[in-house]
From TrEMBL, chain A:
Organism: Cytobacillus kochii
UniProt keyword terms in alphabetical order: Iron, Iron-sulfur, Magnesium, Metal-binding, Oxidoreductase, Thiamine pyrophosphate
PANTHER family xref list: 2-OXOGLUTARATE OXIDOREDUCTASE SUBUNIT KORB (PTHR48084:SF4), 2-OXOGLUTARATE OXIDOREDUCTASE SUBUNIT KORB-RELATED (PTHR48084)
Gene3D superfamilies per UniProt: 3.40.50.970
Official protein name in the record: 2-oxoacid ferredoxin oxidoreductase
Domain of life: Bacteria
Family matches, as InterPro entries: 2-oxoacid:Fd_oxidoreductase, OFOB, PFO_beta_C, THDP-binding, TPP_enzyme_TPP-bd
Amino acid sequence: MATFKDFRNNVKPNWCPGCGDFSVQAAIQRASANVGLEPEELAVVSGIGCSGRISGYINSYGFHGIHGRSLPIAQGVKMANKDLTVIASGGDGDGFAIGMGHTIHAIRRNINVTYIVMDNQIYGLTKGQTSPRSSTGFKTKSTPEGSIEQAISPMEMALTAGATFVAQSFSTDLKDLTALIEQGIQHDGFSLINVFSPCVTYNKINTYDWFKANLTKLKDIEGYDSSNREQAMQTLMKHEGLVTGLIYQDTERKSYQEMLHGYSETPLAKADLNLDQAYFDKLVEEFM
Amino acid sequence: MVKQLSWKVGGQQGEGIESTGEIFSIALNRLGYYLYGYRHFSSRIKGGHTNNKIRVSTSQTRSVADDLDVLVAFDQETIDVNYKELHDGGIILADAKFNPVKPEDTNAILLSVPFTQMATDLGTSLMKNMVAVGSTCAVLNLDVEVFKEVVEEIFARKGQAVVDKNMEAIKAGYDTTVEQLGKTEGLMQLDEADGKKRMFMIGNDAIALGALAAGSRFMAAYPITPASEIMEYLIKKLPELGGTVIQTEDEIAAATMAIGANYAGVRAFTASAGPGLSLKMESIGLAGITETPLVIVDTQRGGPSTGLPTKQEQSDLMAMIYGTHGEIPKIVLAPSTVQEAFYDTAEAFNLAEEYQCPVIVLSDLQLSLGKQTVEPLNFNEVEIRRGKLQGDLPEIDSKEYFKRYEVTEDGVSPRVIPGMKYGIHHVTGVEHDQSGKPSESAANRIQQMDKRFRKIENVKFNTPVYKNAPHEEADLLLVGFISTRGAIEEAITRLEADGLKVNHAHIRLIHPFPTDELMPLVASAKKVVVVENNATGQLANIIKMNVGHANKIIKYNKYDGNPFLPHEIHTKCKELF
């Protein structure tokens, strides 16, 4: 059986020292081993940006696509081969700016893909511009007077879009993060895990210390019930989204592929491509 | 007795004009006639003039007819807009309801028939279309019984009473018109057809069938005119084969989802029209640099932007050849008949896997939506070839990546799909080395670019140019692509009758351009006319660029949204001599 070391490759990440993404990488590797995967059974699809490089830093099948489109690519992979475990990943710009349309629709479509967002509230790779997660007043190269736009609340948004698995974590909480990724992989449906992953170079506001001072762990809230959508929403609003842990999970609703009419039991990628002559003749007859 | 005639039904959109044409066509198709239907419609659901012009012939036709024999009108606008197409002695069958008026400058015969009134008397005005069909039977001296089978099929689920009522409506229309004519032999009569059963379908049906025959089991698409029929057909059929269609949130998702599925080993594709293709361009580049097979159908319509969404145009050519930033290997096919749309779509999936690159099947509105009689499709001609897709792989060190982008002589690298042991590698839209790891090395860049372009140096495609070239030295070479084929063929028959020597070349492999195939025909012709539905002569320019002979290439462009008619091409060419 594979261990987390089997999910390591010999590529050195080009992230800055201290970047939160290192922990996310380690958590994916550990979670993959913990749920019993072999490296070839995992496909990691990523977007563009610093965090988008992650697909190249895990010893598994990896697809580094185009900006904002990790989710449709990942869903295509999963539709083609439902036996694969598919993780989509990228930054907050990738998922909540250029790729927001896909995020909302992946949530409501509920294909069994785990989406891990490395949320640093800034554009890093383009060297420090505002992101849809930047708080109001946040000064960046593109908002020299401070951002005057409202920041997105991805967890609340996911709940309203009909998410069946919503979780949030902090990159230094390696143990909790690993456990959430395992749960996300095992959840039969779309799972969104937003990870606060500080940018040590361009975000001097939302630092490790800032998160430590402002985050609340859901497991510390007495009576918190992650199957209660209303409570989830209220808790998020009360804490301005700054909570970590499993926020909401719906174990009742079936995944897209479970519900799909006529969908093959064997993965499509292994299906016989040949049509039967009699079936083709029937199709032809329908046009006569 | 005539070998062919042209019939048109028109009215307000949403009035059942399409189904009137459909019933008329299916019945005649079953008698063994060759049908060719072209719809004039607008980008709206209810209201606005619409018509369906149907040509009936005892031999294959692939062009809209020059003129009109019978016009069925449900409103005055239909008469006013279309009467000039009627030749002398043509017939207008008009609903008495709107008190039809015959324009002064026509020798056509107007018969005012109470379509709506008779239908209402039989139970519902909805059946006015059936009355009109019956009325047509009287004029063409067709036995109304030929419609029985079709009416039964269409209305079976509504019960026998509805079937009977509709047949009654057809008979009533027939009887009344016979009475008005004062005779039973009709005004014009078609030669008897051969009685053979043939398919009656639109190009989009053939494209969808081609995808099925090629083993495609997944489609991701976004609704758009004139491509939607492809996804609508496949969502009915794919679940029978374990597959499906996903209607995505946008055009980009459609392309990237298809890329993801192809990467994971399924023959997935997407189909759209110009606006969708514009949105898919970055994705096409991704498929190019990651060497992921990808089939995309572009059913061209009037551009740019939203342009003329329901009209014919062929103006995406350059965008399809060169579109996406940067440079990638790409194959562009352009079927010119419905049969070719079937075979070429199926073949596109083979080429995509063999050359590991995007393959665009270029259609146009006239081919995609023109409903016509199609000679049998030979299923056995469809091969499935998957190129260098690997089976079991030899063991490699677990930390080494599989060389997915190995530099090879033909440029094509071995391909593996996720899930395969010892096949792990990285795929990225960033320039990469042989194992897929990002690389900015100048030497590697050249090596990988050269490798990718080497793939399409020798693309093997069965018939890159359709040729009908009986003359060693021709006065004229006519060149076109996609749906102009029928009109060009008919124009050639007339030009030959005028004494000109005319060759015909229809380009089916647009890119890489089949220069060697076309060169001799261009070289041996005195003049070359390139017929295309766009304003700038994109195909003509491509020919000049690849073949040369710029001084003898004449552009003949039509970009008013309508298909070429045979007489237009005939007239234009005659003027040159």
